[in-house]
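Narrative summary of target 7.
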Amino acid sequence: MSADVAVSVDPVADGPAAPADRAGSVDAAGTAVGNVEALPTPEPAVVDADFWFDPLCPWAWLTSRWMLEVEKVRPVRTRWHVMSLAVLNDGRDMPEQYQELMTQAWGPVRICIAAAATAGEEILLPLYTALGRRRHLEKAELTEETFVAALEEVGLDPALAAAAHSTEWDERLRASHSDGIGRVGMDVGTPVIAIGDNAFFGPVITPTPRGEAAGRLWDGVLLVSETPGFYELKRSREQGPIFD
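Modeled conformation, tokenized:
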């Protein structure tokens, strides 16, 4: 053979080339490596949380504002319901000062129940916010003037303020209260939160966590509350509610 004879290689004979439109390669174990297009991350499912409140309770107010923060950083949707400290303590032996407070407590929850029956359950959050801001931030007394101002703020008939002194809505009120308290037992108060069959009282917090701190607390509360046999974590409160 002459020394100047060239030998060529037919690429087809050496096997098919990788398609030009596929990125990346496969290693010996069959695992894709290289520039493999990433699949889109699915959106997390929205969690429905049911929240029972009494507008009178400052601790429930703080927890409710926390839930609104949680909704900003976690896929959570809160449904609002009324419970009643007046119903919970009805017939109990209490100091005179607390009995007077429980007498006043009937008004706001009756108005909330009447409003929900009139305008739908979706009115409860804005009405709770209007009542709670006046009660806890502005330190307003639970008077007809306060009730009328809150009702007008959310576009409701101010005549609903009359429900504060009427027993017309008490059957509905007791049913809503029982739905919440029945999930956690009679030895707790407000708020009650339920995620499906997982229900608990609290958390009792001050001040309201904001941003990702609210999300982390939500994660932790769910973690412990979903643990079978878990009942209680508690320490003495060293300060009152802090409203910010």
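The longest helix spans residues 96-119.
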